[in-house]
Amino acid sequence: MAVARFGLNASSKVVEIASNDGYLLQYVVAAGVPCLGVEPSANVAQAARSKGVPTEIAFFGLDTARRLADAGHAADLLVSKNVLAHVPDINDFVAGVGAILKPEGAYTVEFPHLLNLIQQVQFDTIYHEHFTYLSVLAIEKVFAKHGLRIFDIDEVPTHGGSLRIFACREGSIQPLSPNVAIVRNKEIAAGLDRPEGYADFGRRVEKVRADLLAFLGEAQAGKMRVVGYGAAAKGNTLFNYCGITERQIGFVADRSPAKQGKLLPGSHIPIRDPQAILDEKPDYVLIVPWNLRDEISRQLAPVRAWGGRFVTAIPNIAVF
Asked: What is the dihedral sign for C-alpha 50, 56, 57, 60?
């Protein structure tokens, strides 16, 4: 999409912030477009280099951006996927974006949409590595402070509903898409520009907890067994907030061998291979990463054969 939209070719430069092991940029290399990854973790940066992806080991900010631009790495396309919400100093980061972009360069960034977090009661996505929870209304102010403007927005399903923002320098000729006003107006209609839009969130979070605990209590009273699927970060927020332990959820299955045989932090619920679900045939499987409920319920289709059912807790209890 980016190659076609921005006319990228052998004379262009793509820079990715937090490029990890080069998974995205390997395709930029394959397309014949020069690129550079900026990645602070030396071990994964080395993995990227081994794939033929040039990678600078550094944290991104204004100083790094100026240094790279002076070294010939000014970007026609600057990419950061789910990075902006993880940045401790968002102003230093966005100032760096402005410093490394070419005059007609484009910056694209994705982040979970605050509007969905509030409307869908996605409180389990609030955890330590996220420093900000972003709306267009907020990010437009930060961008404007550093001479940037948003010219297009895609609404994407990732992480329960994310925004893919396209931004450029204030003086760029990039045309303004009507998508920007559409998303901004959704936020204003939901009250994200005033305190009232946030006021009811706590009560709705408490209702999720009460409803989940009531469901688990009824299952126990009926001698029905509940297990979980997906040892995800959001599950730790959910289980610890609700005070759920192994007494209510016998185990959580996860496909990652690195997690199996361990315990979930805080709740100490055991993590097992998904085969354990097929072996033990529980009455209910609580899908912890609710944003993947359709994919996971397809993977676990045999559960239906013994009358087992699936459950999600957010935005409310759903049994299917």
From this structure: negative
Indicate the residue type of 178: P
pLDDT, tens only, 132-150: 999 999 999 999 999 999 9
Q: What is the DSSP string of 138-173?
A: HHHHHHHHTTEEEEEEEEE-GGGSEEEEEEEETT--
Q: 71-84, pLDDT tens digit by residue?
A: 999 999 999 999 99
pTM for this prediction? 0.89
Q: Which residue has the tokens 């990228």?
A: 8
- pLDDT tens-digit readout, 87-125: 999 999 999 999 999 999 999 999 999 999 999 999 999
For the four alpha carbons of 254, 256, 259 and 264, in that order, the dihedral sign comes to negative
The SS3 call for residue 305 is helix
Cis preceding linkage at 315, omega within 30: yes
In the DSSP assignment, the letter for residue 51 is T
Which tokens in the block code for residue 35?
A: 């690129």
36 in the Ramachandran plot: left (φ > 0), alpha (ψ -120 to 50) or beta? beta
Considering only CA atoms, give the Rg of the chain.
Answer: 22
